[in-house]
Write a structure and sequence with these properties.
Shape: elongated
Low-confidence stretches: 1-8
Strand content: 25-35%
CATH architecture of the largest domain: Roll
Distance between the termini: 46 Å
Number of domains: 3
Helix content: 25-40%
Number of strands: 14
Radius of gyration: 24 Å
Number of helices: 4
Mean pLDDT: 82
CATH class of the largest domain: Mainly Beta
Structural class: alpha+beta
């Protein structure tokens, strides 16, 4: 049995499939930052109200105290906001809610899906990546889901699977009419992609949310575009020969 908050706002959403909530990793990170801020406040407070610390002027102590209070307040505010975030995934769309406000998004409403993966390193050792989803509604409304949401990458895959067939069909129909298809800052048609003729391109690949075009002169162009899965399907059908693996995908 689902609570009232879990029920679809619209029968068109279909049955509930999964709920995505606040990430424990983001929770742990916010606690570490809070501990550091509290330590800074304790040091500056001790210097101001108990015993001056050598090398720490009164002005600097007050400055650190003020900064610590402000940053701690902002952290607490965003922690409350983030912990209230819920995404209820349904068969035909999803509902995302935050502090009592809910918004419904049907798959047919999504015009663009932008995916970003920011690599995270400890020293020079890769430790993972931070994912971000940005969806543009047909009416221009923007939906932004950050890595503070648990398994946001998995949610992105599910959304992409749902909208891909429709977006690909619409793009093919547009090309059949002789019209170019826009992917954010670039366009694709039967002659070129992003102003580069198909004959000049060796491969098109996607790595960490960025689309890379490799030319025959070995020059590589990186562009952040939406709907990369649709772009890749159209590119593969127009390349003069089978594409080799993207240079970036092998890294």
């Amino acid at each position: 049995m689902h609570t009232a908050a879990d029920r679809p706002l619209d029968p068109a959403l279909g049955p509930l499939e999964k709920e995505y909530t606040y990430s424990h990793r983001a929770d742990a990170l916010s606690l570490v930052i809070a501990a550091l801020l509290c330590t800074m406040l304790a040091v500056s407070g001790y210097s101001l109200f108990v015993q001056p610390i050598e090398g720490l002027s009164t002005l600097l102590a007050w400055l650190l105290t003020g900064m610590g209070v402000v940053f701690l307040g902002v952290l607490i505010y965003f922690r409350i906001i983030s912990r209230s975030l819920r995404v209820h995934l349904h068969q035909n769309g999803f509902v995302y809610s935050r502090i009592g406000l809910s918004h419904k998004v049907l798959w047919d409403d999504i015009a663009e899906l932008w995916r970003v993966e920011i690599p995270v390193e400890a020293g020079a050792v890769p430790t993972g990546s931070l994912a971000q989803l940005r969806m543009v509604h047909k009416n221009g409304h923007l939906v932004l889901l950050l890595d503070s949401l648990h398994r946001v990458g998995e949610l992105g895959d599910r959304i992409e699977d749902a909208i891909y067939p429709r977006l690909l069909a619409e793009a093919k129909e547009q090309l059949a009419k002789g019209q170019p298809v826009r992917f954010g800052p670039i366009t694709l048609d039967d002659k070129a992609l992003a102003g580069e003729s198909w004959e000049q391109l060796i491969s098109v690949g996607v790595h960490q949310g960025i689309t890379y075009l490799l030319r025959k002169d070995d020059r590589e162009i990186g562009i952040h575009v939406p709907n990369t899965r649709v772009l890749m399907a159209l590119a593969e059908a127009r390349m003069p020969s089978p594409m080799p693996p993207s240079r970036r995908s092998l890294q």
